[in-house]
Design a protein that fits this description.
247 residues, alpha+beta, outer membrane lipoprotein receptor (LolB), chain A, twelve-stranded mixed β-sheet, 5 helices, 12 strands
């Protein structure tokens, strides 16, 4: 795999970075992934024979309704010499709820409730922001949360309505897939993406998201649990002792 899989990490915080990082988490949605190198040149469109790994991954992903995963993540900015780095855990209930937290103990927590509210907690400052479902609809960055509301695409055709598959290339036990958002899908600043699909397990083993501002996000999931029981309380954050601002 790529050498970017072995970086060192320090905490990342902030609402907008969190929302952009979610775009990578939610694309995978139902599997785990590390990171991959930036494409070096434009690729030709994939042929139907190239798409078998993507079909197998989608079929596997649609059998997973809940997921718990530990991750490492790295955001590379054009204006910053050292990447912004974080480690944490994510809980996903497909079509319903999401919890993402950074640090141990958590420094930043973000929760999408089954009711559609999105809460971001700065645990260090004991401050929380709560965004209503209506407020989220007005925020372009929050479009990344769409996957959790409607569920993961159930077929290759549904997936291709969201993403153009540019190229699929074998790489050892993996298949490297290069993507770009389909026209008119509201990509929240995402220009292109890449991921590695494991040929035997049909899971998403690696991913990198490239943003319009020239930055890119590498994500490494170090462990996963498929279809575990997740307590409902995890998606209803306890705000006792927090200053709260609603939007």
């Amino acid at each position: 795999m790529n050498p970017l899989l072995k970086p060192s990490f320090r905490p990342l915080s902030g609402l907008k970075p969190a929302l952009m990082l979610f775009s990578g988490v939610l694309l995978a949605g139902l599997a785990a992934w590390p990171a991959m190198a930036a494409p070096q040149k434009a690729a030709e469109a994939a042929t139907p024979d190239d798409l078998a790994p993507v079909k197998a991954w989608i079929a596997k992903s649609t059998t997973i309704r809940t997921l718990i995963a530990d991750f490492k993540q790295q955001r590379n900015l054009k204006t910053v010499r050292k990447p912004l780095e974080s480690t944490g855990r994510v809980w996903i209930k497909v079509g319903g709820a999401f919890r993402w937290q950074v640090g141990d103990p958590p420094k930043l927590t973000a929760v999408l409730s089954p009711q559609g509210e999105f809460t971001v907690l700065n645990n260090t400052k004991k401050a929380a922001e709560i965004f209503s479902a209506k407020a989220l609809e007005k925020d372009q960055a929050s479009q990344a949360l769409t996957f959790l509301r409607v569920g993961f695409p159930s077929s290759l055709e549904a997936f291709q309505r969201k993403f153009d598959i540019v190229q699929v290339t074998p790489d050892g036990d993996w298949d490297r897939v290069e993507l770009k958002p389909a026209a008119g899908t509201g990509s929240s600043g995402v220009v292109k993406m890449g991921m590695y699909l494991h040929r035997g397990r049909h899971t998403l083993g690696s991913m990198q998201v490239y943003l319009r501002d020239g930055s890119w996000i590498d994500t490494v999931f170090t462990s996963t649990q498929e279809n575990p029981e997740i307590p409902a309380a995890l998606f209803q954050p306890d705000l006792t002792g927090y200053s709260v601002r609603r939007k």
